[in-house]
Amino acid sequence: MAWDEWEQLKTEAAQGRSPRMRLNQLAPGGGGGGGTRGDLTVHQKDLASIGSAAHDLFEDLGRYSDHARISSMKAAGGLRSDGFALGAALDHVAERWVDQVQTLLDACAHISNHLRYTKNQHAADDAYIAGTLSSISQLDQGFDERKDS
């Protein structure tokens, strides 16, 4: 919103006229692009891709973060042995680095594991639904046979 627009709205409000302003709202009549389908759609391929990316990030982050940690700790040790106070500070940063990397690794593992669980649970749900529908069709068939007799 421009400054002059704000000033105009303040003046209209002071004069008792109700300014018409729409904040954080979808324009009426359409929008969203959802049509008759829901807004959220996820395909198994998408879930697999996200899970794979999380697993790859977990592997790479674990491997490459060690290089930074080891280099920082060596540098910290060298600075400290030479009498620089910066050595202790760098050592502290390296310790915090380990904590933060572990948090990220845990998050990546959680994402990957959750998506694997979700995939398996959906497969189990599909099998249950198929079994239930199969039972219903067998029941219907029994009723149809009895009706024909």
Tally the helices: what do you get?
A: 3
Strands, total number:
0
- Termini separation comes to 77 Å
Broad structural category = mainly alpha
- Summarize model confidence as the mean pLDDT: 78
Helix content: over 70%
- What characteristic shape results from the CA principal axes? flat
Count structural domains: 1
Task: Please report which band the strand proportion falls in: under 5%, 5-15%, 15-25%, 25-35%, 35-45% or over 45%.
Answer: under 5%
Topology as a string of helices (H) and strands (E): HHH
Rg calc: 31 Å
Unreliable stretches: none
Major sheet summary line: none
Name the descriptors.
149 residues; mainly alpha; 0% strand; flat; AG1 protein
